[in-house]
């Protein structure tokens, strides 16, 4: 059994009277991928923001267990979480430095190390050998990561000119460059198609295995905290759409849905009826077929299972979201066409998470 | 298609003429003249007609040659492209030849006192532009109060030199340090501000310093200004026509004829060296982690925080270093003028420096030089035309913004490259 890297206990985040996270407890094991999943507005990103110091949690505790020390993440403010505790993160909407080159992006990530080596710029101004060596080393590290994501040939191009998928990869790799103990990926597959996202997943896992130096990564996926679903979903009044969501997806633990096969998924797609009324039957059928696989009920999946299932999870999830969108279009809009709710519903529909 | 285009551009230019008529008709055409103590309207329709025709014709021509999408080689794109290509490929040569030219400039046959003064003024602006480029171009902090640091440098130099009699070379770093301290002072309250809000606060800061200088009479002599600021000496050798008893001056030491140009030439080289130091420092610091952090901060502050970059220290160093060079330039200004008053540090100075940086292309060192030569040179050329100077200045800005919307030199070179790529390119 691997040791726990992250302990989150009774985490609560309130914005005034609005409870975004209510009494959330979970832990993440070392060298494993833990996912946090949930519908829109469930508070996933808020959890991330609390973890990485962008928000100050109202209550609760977050502990990061390093080799021989236990750090309270609540004590660090914004940039110090990355600097001192080694918690890196990526963003839901990519935040690269678009007008800087790819290599520069990675060099900025190694800022603190280089800053120390440059003797707070003074040694660096005179090209001190210690600094020059450190900089070469930093370039080597950047090159190592660029090789992994296959972007070495574009190292000197502006990061903003890369295709979307490559930007995602670059952002993850940039976070890796600070040599993190915990890596938090906020919807890393958002906006990617199934091929790109499975590439991304295998890439992350490969790098996790290949490089012993950087093995202490825990990319966080969407791990659905069922216990908190009602409260979580209250963050931006999505309670209504959440109910609709439950209706279509079914009220079962998410690990049940992972028991699908890629083949089943293809079958579902191929048999997808034009008439949405038959959808419910298909859903039930696919869920029954999912039950064949042996998967632990917990929300923490080990790497192998994760690899095996990731593409399927994504595929199914996408399928369900699509179905949900159609469902909303067909039912909710028709139902509410006479009532006042118009724009908000429309927005909700577009905002649903497209991918895990 | 072609006919259609011609038709629409004629229509458009006629419309422009109509607008010009509506605008200039009342303003220019109807003039009131005092005749026998009565105001009489004296119409000047001929001038209006000329203006309207010029406007319409100009619009027609721009439609044909600049805004014409059919034409593959519109003037706008060709000029823009050729400038960019030329500067991209020949950038180093241009910079080198510019430096060589500026070094031999004082000894060229046509150089006179007037040209030297303009050159010194231009170099001061170039140095200020390079200093502000750190704050605006690299760190992306729009600072509209940069003249405050210029003033702090000038006044601290003047006060130390007058009251303690310290030499230029001691006062210069002190003035720089003082200005840097004021930079940090400004930096602290504005750490969380960005964009427009930052611009407003820095603008207010610039005015605060000026008003402080105006009203703190005991220290700064207020509007009277500080007089008798010591002139710089050539490493202890003053520039004087009539040396005191037993004193060696520049011309006696080198056995030259005394000429007032000697001091001017010395000042010229002084500001040249100071400006080049600013430039070299900026080029170097851009490649250091701190410079990269500045640029990263300009691009995305939140991402910076997520990577453990300390935004507070990074911003404060940008303010401090930018201000320091402003302070250096200020102390040069004080020693050159030998008289300073708050008059010299008004908002228009800040605006000109910001204009130089922005029009030159944010973050581009060569762009600052080009913009300075263009803008300050134009102001000087139009000096004889008095009130039309500012029109020329504005016109120059409009032209730059039309042809080079992102500044004269908008390309940015990466601070570090992988060798492999360079070999293949």
What does this structure look like?
The complex is a heterodimer of chains A (356) and B (425). Chain A is an alpha/beta fold. Chain A has helices at residues 44-51, 78-85, 102-109, 111-117, 122-125, 129-149, 164-176, 194-210, 229-233, 239-249, 254-257, 262-270, 279-290, 303-336, 343-351; strands at 4-15, 18-29, 33-36, 59-65, 70-72, 87-89, 182-184, 220-222, 300-301. In chain A, strand 4 and strand 5 (70-72) form a beta hairpin. In chain A, helix 3 (102-109) runs parallel beside helix 7 (164-176). Chain A is globular, with a radius of gyration of 22 Å. In chain A, 40% of the residues are buried. By secondary structure, chain B is mainly α. Chain B folds into two domains: 2-71, no CATH class; 89-403, ABC transporter involved in vitamin B12 uptake, BtuC (Orthogonal Bundle), CATH 1.10.3470. Chain B has helices at 2-29, 45-65, 75-104, 113-138, 147-164, 168-187, 195-215, 217-220, 250-254, 260-286, 289-299, 301-306, 311-337, 347-360, 365-381, 389-403, 419-424, and strands at 30-35, 38-43. A two-stranded antiparallel sheet of chain B has the order 1-2. The longest helix of chain B is centred in the first third of the chain and has 30 residues, at 75-104. Chain B is globular and about 80 Å long. The model of chain B is unreliable at 421-425 (pLDDT under 50). Chains A and B meet through helix 2, helix 3, helix 4 and helix 6 of A and helix 10, helix 11, helix 12 and helix 17 of B.
């Amino acid at each position: 059994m691997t040791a726990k890297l992250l302990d989150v206990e009774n985490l609560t985040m309130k914005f005034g009277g609005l409870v975004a996270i209510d009494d959330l407890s979970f832990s993440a094991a070392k060298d494993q991928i833990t996912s946090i999943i949930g519908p829109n507005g469930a508070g996933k990103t808020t959890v991330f923001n609390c973890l990485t110091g962008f928000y100050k949690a109202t209550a609760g505790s977050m502990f990061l267990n390093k080799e021989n020390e236990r750090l309270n993440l609540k004590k660090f403010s914004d940039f110090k979480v990355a600097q001192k505790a080694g918690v890196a993160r990526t963003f839901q909407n990519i935040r690269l430095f678009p007008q800087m080159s790819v290599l520069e992006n990675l060099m900025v990530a190694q800022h603190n190390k280089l800053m120390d080596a440059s003797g707070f710029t003074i040694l660096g101004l005179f090209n001190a050998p210690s600094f020059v060596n450190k900089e070469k080393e930093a370039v080597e590290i950047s090159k190592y990561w660029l090789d992994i994501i296959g972007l070495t040939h574009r190292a000197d191009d502006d990061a903003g000119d890369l295709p979307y998928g490559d930007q995602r990869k670059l952002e993850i790799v940039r976070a890796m460059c600070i040599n993190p103990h915990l890596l938090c990926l906020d919807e890393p597959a958002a906006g990617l198609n199934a091929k790109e996202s499975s590439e991304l997943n295998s890439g992350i896992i490969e790098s996790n295995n290949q490089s012993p130096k950087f093995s202490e990564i825990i990319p966080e996926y969407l791990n659905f905290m069922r216990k908190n679903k009602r409260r979580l979903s209250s963050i931006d009044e999505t309670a209504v759409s959440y109910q609709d969501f439950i209706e279509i997806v079914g009220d079962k633990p998410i690990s049940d849905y992972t028991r699908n096969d890629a083949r089943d998924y293809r079958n579902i797609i191929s048999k997808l009826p034009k008439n949405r009324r038959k959808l419910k039957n298909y859903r039930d059928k696919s869920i029954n077929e999912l039950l064949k696989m042996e998967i632990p009920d917990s929300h923490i999946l080990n790497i192998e299972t994760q690899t095996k299932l990731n593409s399927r999870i994504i595929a199914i999830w996408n399928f369900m979201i699509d179905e949900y969108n159609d469902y909303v279009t067909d039912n909710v809009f028709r139902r509410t066409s006479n009532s006042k709710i118009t724009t908000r519903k429309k927005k909700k529909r577009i905002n649903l998470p497209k991918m895990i | 298609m072609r006919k259609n285009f011609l038709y629409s551009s004629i229509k458009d230019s006629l419309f422009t003429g109509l607008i010009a008529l509506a605008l200039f008709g009342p303003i220019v055409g109807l003039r009131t003249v005092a005749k026998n103590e009565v105001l009489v309207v004296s119409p000047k329709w001929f001038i209006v007609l000329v203006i309207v025709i010029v406007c319409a014709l100009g619009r027609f021509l721009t439609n044909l040659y600049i805004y014409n999408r059919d034409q593959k080689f519109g003037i706008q794109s060709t000029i823009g492209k050729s400038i960019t290509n030329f500067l991209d490929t020949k950038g180093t040569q241009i910079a080198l030849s510019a430096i060589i030219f500026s070094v031999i400039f004082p000894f060229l046959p046509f150089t006179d006192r007037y040209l030297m003064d303009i050159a010194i003024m231009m170099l001061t602006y170039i140095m200020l532009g390079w200093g502000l480029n750190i704050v605006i171009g690299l760190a992306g902090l729009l600072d509209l109060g940069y003249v405050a640091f210029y003033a702090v440098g000038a006044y601290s130099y003047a006060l130390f030199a007058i009251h303690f009699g310290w030499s230029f070379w001691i006062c210069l770093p002190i003035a720089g340090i003082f200005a840097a301290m004021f930079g940090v002072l400004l930096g602290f309250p504005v750490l969380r501000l960005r964009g427009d809000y930052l611009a407003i606060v820095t603008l207010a800061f610039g005015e605060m310093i000026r008003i402080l200088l105006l009203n703190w009479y005991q220290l700064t002599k207020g509007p009277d200004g500080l007089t008798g600021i010591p002139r710089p000496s050539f490493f202890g050798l003053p520039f004087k026509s009539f040396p005191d008893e037993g004193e060696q001056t520049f011309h006696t030491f080198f056995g030259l004829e005394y000429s007032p140009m000697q001091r001017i030439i010395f000042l010229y080289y002084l500001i040249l060296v100071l400006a080049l130091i600013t430039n070299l420092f900026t080029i170097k610091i851009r490649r250091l982690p701190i410079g990269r952090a500045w640029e990263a901060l300009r691009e995305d502050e939140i991402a910076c925080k997520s990577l453990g970059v300390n935004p507070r220290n990074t911003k404060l160093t940008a303010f401090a270093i930018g201000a320091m060079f402003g302070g250096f330039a200020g102390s040069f200004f004080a020693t050159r003028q030998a008289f300073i008053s708050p008059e010299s540090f008004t908002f228009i100075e800040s605006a000109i420096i910001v204009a130089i940086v922005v029009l030159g292309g944010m973050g581009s060192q060569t762009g600052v030089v080009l913009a300075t030569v263009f803008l300050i040179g134009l102001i000087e050329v139009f000096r004889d035309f008095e009130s039309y100077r500012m029109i020329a200045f504005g016109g120059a800005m409009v032209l730059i913004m039309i042809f080079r919307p992102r500044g004269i030199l908008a390309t940015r070179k990466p601070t570090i490259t992988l060798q492999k790529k360079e070999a293949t390119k």
